Structure formats: C-alpha cells, structure tokens
Amino acid sequence: MAEKKVRSREKKQRTGRKHSSLKVWEYYEVDGNTVKRKRSHCPRCGPGTMLSVHGNRKYCGRCGYTEFSKSGSTEEKSENQ
Ligand SMILES: [Zn+2]
Known about the structure:
By secondary structure, this protein is mostly beta strands. The chain has a domain at 24-68. It is built from no helices and 7 strands. It has strands at residues 28-31, 34-37, 41-42, 46-50, 52-54, 57-59, 66-68. The strands form 3 sheets. It has a 3-stranded antiparallel β-sheet with strand order 5-6-7, with no helix packed on it. The protein is elongated and about 80 Å long. The N and C termini lie far apart (62 Å). Zinc ion binds at residues 42, 44-45, 49, 60, 62-63, 65.
C-alpha cells in the first residue's frame, strides 16, 4: 500500500519591513533640460551608484569606496584592500 504523502507547505508570512528602498530620485534635481546631481557618484561603480555622506566622508555601500572630504585640503583614500 503506497500512501501518497502530501506536504502542506506553510507560507511564511513576512513580518516587518525589508530593506527600505533607496530614494535615488531624490538625489537628482531636474532643472529644465539639465539634471543636477546632489550626490557625488562612486568613481569605481560609475554614475549609477551614489556615495552616502557620513560626516566628513563619502562612502560607497557597494564597493566600500571611501572618500574623505576635509575642508581645506582634499584628501582621498580608498579602503578596499
Ligand atoms: Zn562603489
């Protein structure tokens, strides 16, 4: 006698919020036919990836590029090694 096992899959209900969507569109400002970029983009990942600003440095969450912006002297440093 072969009994067929029926597995009832329980659907997991996802509670809570997932990663909040990055509002990239807010980083742009359309002025007529030109688009102004409020944030600077990552030199490694290209214009598609914005750098998040933390205090006096900009950080790329994708590749880990960090750009320090000190007032007076512009010092650049990358941390990905
Ligand atoms: Zn990057």
